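Our preliminary data section would be incomplete without showing what the modeling component actually yields. Below, a chain of 180 amino acids is followed by its predicted structure, encoded as C-alpha coordinates that our downstream tools consume directly.
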Amino acid sequence: MMTNISNLDITNLDIISWIISPPFPKTFFIIKILFILISLYFLAGIIYFLSKTHYLQWLYGEPVTSLLTQRPYGVKKIDKQWKRIVERLKSDSEEEYKLAIIEADAILDEVLKKIGYKGDTIDERLEKVTTDAISNLEELKKVHQIESDIVRDPSYHLTKEEAKKILLVYKKTFEELEVI
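Predicted structure:
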Protein backbone atom coordinates (compact mmCIF):
# COMPACT_ATOMS: atom_id res chain seq x y z
CA MET A 1 0.00 0.00 0.00
CA MET A 2 1.29 3.34 -0.99
CA THR A 3 1.04 6.31 1.30
CA ASN A 4 0.47 9.66 -0.12
CA ILE A 5 2.84 12.25 1.32
CA SER A 6 0.28 14.97 0.99
CA ASN A 7 -1.94 13.18 3.52
CA LEU A 8 0.71 13.54 6.23
CA ASP A 9 0.14 16.53 8.44
CA ILE A 10 3.81 17.07 9.25
CA THR A 11 5.00 20.52 8.44
CA ASN A 12 8.36 22.19 8.75
CA LEU A 13 7.09 23.97 11.83
CA ASP A 14 6.33 20.66 13.53
CA ILE A 15 9.84 19.35 12.85
CA ILE A 16 11.48 22.51 14.19
CA SER A 17 9.31 22.48 17.31
CA TRP A 18 10.18 18.80 17.92
CA ILE A 19 13.93 19.63 17.62
CA ILE A 20 13.66 22.61 19.94
CA SER A 21 11.52 20.94 22.58
CA PRO A 22 11.74 17.17 22.20
CA PRO A 23 9.27 14.93 24.00
CA PHE A 24 11.89 13.81 26.52
CA PRO A 25 13.85 16.98 27.53
CA LYS A 26 15.19 15.58 30.82
CA THR A 27 16.99 12.78 29.02
CA PHE A 28 18.62 15.21 26.57
CA PHE A 29 19.60 17.52 29.42
CA ILE A 30 21.34 14.67 31.25
CA ILE A 31 23.11 13.62 28.04
CA LYS A 32 24.26 17.23 27.47
CA ILE A 33 25.68 17.44 31.01
CA LEU A 34 27.37 14.06 30.57
CA PHE A 35 29.05 15.13 27.32
CA ILE A 36 30.16 18.44 28.87
CA LEU A 37 31.76 16.58 31.78
CA ILE A 38 33.48 14.13 29.44
CA SER A 39 34.78 17.04 27.33
CA LEU A 40 36.12 18.82 30.42
CA TYR A 41 37.80 15.59 31.56
CA PHE A 42 39.58 15.18 28.22
CA LEU A 43 40.52 18.88 28.10
CA ALA A 44 42.07 18.59 31.56
CA GLY A 45 43.93 15.47 30.40
CA ILE A 46 45.32 17.29 27.36
CA ILE A 47 46.49 20.22 29.48
CA TYR A 48 48.05 17.87 32.04
CA PHE A 49 49.96 15.85 29.44
CA LEU A 50 51.13 18.94 27.56
CA SER A 51 52.49 20.37 30.80
CA LYS A 52 54.26 17.12 31.75
CA THR A 53 55.77 16.35 28.35
CA HIS A 54 58.17 18.42 26.30
CA TYR A 55 55.96 18.39 23.22
CA LEU A 56 55.43 22.17 23.17
CA GLN A 57 59.14 22.75 23.73
CA TRP A 58 59.84 20.45 20.80
CA LEU A 59 57.17 22.17 18.70
CA TYR A 60 58.26 25.74 19.38
CA GLY A 61 61.94 25.12 20.12
CA GLU A 62 61.83 26.67 23.58
CA PRO A 63 60.04 26.20 26.90
CA VAL A 64 56.47 27.43 27.12
CA THR A 65 57.36 29.71 30.04
CA SER A 66 59.59 31.81 27.81
CA LEU A 67 56.75 32.05 25.28
CA LEU A 68 54.37 33.26 27.98
CA THR A 69 56.76 35.79 29.55
CA GLN A 70 57.97 37.19 26.20
CA ARG A 71 61.57 36.97 27.41
CA PRO A 72 64.23 35.42 25.20
CA TYR A 73 65.03 31.79 25.86
CA GLY A 74 67.84 31.31 28.39
CA VAL A 75 67.65 34.78 29.94
CA LYS A 76 66.70 33.41 33.36
CA LYS A 77 69.87 31.30 33.43
CA ILE A 78 71.98 34.28 32.40
CA ASP A 79 70.34 36.42 35.12
CA LYS A 80 71.42 33.87 37.73
CA GLN A 81 74.95 33.78 36.35
CA TRP A 82 75.16 37.57 36.31
CA LYS A 83 73.99 37.80 39.94
CA ARG A 84 76.72 35.33 40.89
CA ILE A 85 79.28 37.51 39.09
CA VAL A 86 78.10 40.61 40.96
CA GLU A 87 78.38 38.68 44.24
CA ARG A 88 82.01 37.90 43.44
CA LEU A 89 82.78 41.63 43.38
CA LYS A 90 81.67 41.94 46.99
CA SER A 91 84.65 39.93 48.19
CA ASP A 92 88.11 41.33 48.75
CA SER A 93 89.87 38.63 46.78
CA GLU A 94 91.63 39.42 43.52
CA GLU A 95 90.99 35.85 42.38
CA GLU A 96 87.24 36.42 42.75
CA TYR A 97 87.47 39.55 40.58
CA LYS A 98 89.37 37.61 37.92
CA LEU A 99 86.88 34.77 38.05
CA ALA A 100 83.99 37.24 37.70
CA ILE A 101 85.53 38.67 34.52
CA ILE A 102 86.22 35.21 33.10
CA GLU A 103 82.60 34.17 33.78
CA ALA A 104 81.24 37.38 32.21
CA ASP A 105 83.30 36.70 29.10
CA ALA A 106 82.00 33.11 29.00
CA ILE A 107 78.43 34.45 29.15
CA LEU A 108 79.24 36.82 26.28
CA ASP A 109 80.57 33.92 24.23
CA GLU A 110 77.43 31.88 24.92
CA VAL A 111 75.16 34.80 24.00
CA LEU A 112 77.01 35.49 20.75
CA LYS A 113 76.69 31.80 19.80
CA LYS A 114 72.95 31.81 20.53
CA ILE A 115 72.42 34.99 18.55
CA GLY A 116 74.03 33.28 15.59
CA TYR A 117 77.52 34.72 15.20
CA LYS A 118 79.71 32.07 13.60
CA GLY A 119 83.27 31.31 14.58
CA ASP A 120 85.38 28.83 16.49
CA THR A 121 86.46 31.31 19.17
CA ILE A 122 84.96 34.35 20.80
CA ASP A 123 87.56 36.49 19.03
CA GLU A 124 86.24 35.34 15.65
CA ARG A 125 82.67 36.00 16.71
CA LEU A 126 83.55 39.48 18.03
CA GLU A 127 85.11 40.32 14.65
CA LYS A 128 81.78 39.62 12.96
CA VAL A 129 79.80 41.84 15.35
CA THR A 130 79.08 45.40 14.19
CA THR A 131 78.53 48.55 16.21
CA ASP A 132 74.91 48.43 15.08
CA ALA A 133 74.43 45.35 17.26
CA ILE A 134 76.68 46.43 20.15
CA SER A 135 77.38 50.14 20.49
CA ASN A 136 80.36 49.70 22.84
CA LEU A 137 82.08 47.13 20.63
CA GLU A 138 85.55 48.67 20.89
CA GLU A 139 85.37 48.79 24.69
CA LEU A 140 84.11 45.21 24.68
CA LYS A 141 87.06 44.07 22.58
CA LYS A 142 89.44 45.78 25.02
CA VAL A 143 87.89 44.13 28.08
CA HIS A 144 87.89 40.79 26.28
CA GLN A 145 91.61 41.28 25.67
CA ILE A 146 92.06 41.92 29.41
CA GLU A 147 90.13 38.70 30.12
CA SER A 148 92.45 36.84 27.73
CA ASP A 149 95.46 38.32 29.54
CA ILE A 150 94.05 37.18 32.88
CA VAL A 151 93.59 33.65 31.56
CA ARG A 152 97.10 33.50 30.03
CA ASP A 153 98.95 35.19 32.90
CA PRO A 154 97.96 34.00 36.40
CA SER A 155 100.07 36.80 37.93
CA TYR A 156 98.04 39.51 36.15
CA HIS A 157 97.23 42.19 38.73
CA LEU A 158 93.63 43.40 38.92
CA THR A 159 92.10 45.85 41.38
CA LYS A 160 88.48 45.94 42.47
CA GLU A 161 87.92 49.26 40.67
CA GLU A 162 89.30 47.87 37.40
CA ALA A 163 87.11 44.81 37.75
CA LYS A 164 84.04 47.02 38.31
CA LYS A 165 84.83 49.08 35.19
CA ILE A 166 85.32 45.94 33.11
CA LEU A 167 82.10 44.39 34.36
CA LEU A 168 80.22 47.62 33.59
CA VAL A 169 81.22 47.20 29.94
CA TYR A 170 79.91 43.63 29.97
CA LYS A 171 76.73 44.78 31.72
CA LYS A 172 76.08 47.48 29.12
CA THR A 173 76.58 44.93 26.36
CA PHE A 174 74.22 42.43 27.98
CA GLU A 175 71.59 45.13 28.47
CA GLU A 176 71.84 46.12 24.80
CA LEU A 177 71.46 42.47 23.81
CA GLU A 178 68.51 42.24 26.25
CA VAL A 179 69.83 39.28 28.18
CA ILE A 180 69.86 40.89 31.62
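Residues 75-176 form one domain. The mean pLDDT is 83. Preliminary results of this kind motivate Aim 1 of the renewal.
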